Amino acid sequence: MNYANVTVFDRYDQLVVMAIVRAPKKSSKSWAVKERRDIREIQEGFLSRFTLVVAPDFVYLWKSAKPAKATPDLVVPAREILGKYMNGIDEHDFIPASTLELIVGMWLGDLAIGLARSTAPSVEKTGLTKAISGGRIDFPRAAA
Questions:
Q1: Paired residues of 6 in beta bridges
Q2: 5 CB-contact burial (10 Å; exposed 0-12 / middle 13-18 / buried 19+)
Q3: pLDDT tens, residue order, the chain (144 aa)
């Protein structure tokens, strides 16, 4: 289960985002740090400018290749970012990782082609949208 589910490459085909999508009942910063650390150990050499750890309740974002134990630069409620893609899903409903993976892929894809802006100003300020503009989305492994 230690892999990035969604990756984004910029217009120059450089890896910009690794998104780790999981579906725990409840996430935390310490859980997100562990998920990111596990990925970094396995995918050494494939560091991205941004790392996202996405759970149904929160999105954790790191800018640049910070040390493995670094806490996220930003923590945002998932519905603040992904809400329009979760239309019809009650906040108390279980969201399978595979569904959440598709939602994250749609959101990042929309950002990359300029169809949407992040609904969270704090995410916009990180430079994520600008970094992936004109890029492409890839699903290297399906969510478990």
A1: 19
A2: buried
A3: 457 889 999 999 999 999 999 999 899 999 999 999 887 665 555 678 899 999 999 999 999 777 778 899 999 999 999 988 888 887 777 888 889 999 999 999 999 988 866 667 888 889 999 999 999 999 986 555
SS3 string of the chain?
CCCCCEEEECCCCCEEEEEEECCCCCCCHHHHHHHHHHHHHHCCCCCCCEEEEECCCEEEEEECCCCCCCCCCEEEEHHHHHHHHCCCCCCCCCCCHHHHHHHHHHHHHHHHCCCCCCCCHHHHCCCHHHHHCCCEEECCCCCC
Burial environment of residue 42 by CB neighbours within 10 A (0 to 12, 13 to 18, 19 or more): exposed
Q: Are strands 50-54 and 15-21 parallel, antiparallel or unpaired?
A: parallel
CA dihedral 114, 110, 16, 98 (to 10 degrees): 180
